[in-house]
Amino acid sequence: MTEFERVACEAASRAGEVLRRRFREADPLKIESKGLHDFVTEVDRQAEDAAVGHVRACFPDHVVMSEESSPDAGAADYRWIIDPLDGTTNFIHGVTPFSVSVALEDREGPLAAAILDPTRDEMFHASRGGGAFCNDDPIRVSNPDNHDRALFATGFPFRELSRLDRYMESFEAFVRTTAGIRRAGSAAIDLARTAAGRYDGFWEIGLARWDIAAGVLLVREAGGVVTDPLGGATYLDTGDIVAAGPRMHEFMLEVTRGAFGPR
């Protein structure tokens, strides 16, 4: 494990301790709305303080971008991308999964990553060129021959209702041609499970960089392919993403290009 990967795991663990403790408590949460169907609680901020504080203590010269705070000013060779609670709506309602996502980017893209599922004690982690792992075990994407038996994951585009018709077109196509679709409520977990071969593919639109930066590296290091729905490389900026093993990714692009391509 590289030093960057180790710090990513440590930061995710510190935030995860906050989430586990508060998830077991019966105290009501203070919930604020950031936008349509988009919520934040004091738990998000407490978990963020734990993760961001650790990163800044280890690398004070690095830039940090986190979901619940303004990004650090200035340019730097290294930028941390942190989502302290991916799956806030699940957390509010007392259901799982939810996760912590921590990624480090350099000028070439994601360099180190950690995604923690705190209720299952699963730490997914990777570094560029170093492979992907769940706890201490190497993970690989699945690569089935037949999409009829494939299980895909997705998330409903609650921030992108203007494109809901196109999303539903892709959803219907996958429902008709695969073994099933799952919607867990945490894009980071969906990508981690895709990297681990539990899901055969994942697609969604309108996500934020902190939702997917860590998961992108995990899928790549596990042998998978990540693009936007048209097969391009805009996914970290647009939040429109398709991730899978090589064969399933090729099949998924046939669907998503039709659904999201020019009309």
Describe what you observe in this structure.
The chain has helices at residues 3-24, 42-58, 88-92, 164-177, 187-195, 209-221, 235-238, 246-260; strands at 31-35, 38-41, 63-66, 79-86, 99-106, 109-117, 122-127, 132-134, 137-138, 151-154, 180-182, 201-204, 225-227, 241-244. The longest helix is centred in the first third of the chain and has 22 residues, at 3-24. The chain has 2 domains: 3-138, Fructose-1,6-Bisphosphatase, Chain A, domain 1; 147-260, D-Maltodextrin-Binding Protein, domain 2 (3-Layer(aba) Sandwich), CATH 3.40.190.80. Helices cover 38% and strands 25% of the residues. The strands form 3 sheets. It has a 7-stranded mixed β-sheet with strand order 3-4-5-6-7-8-9. The chain has 263 residues and is α+β, with helices and mostly antiparallel strands.
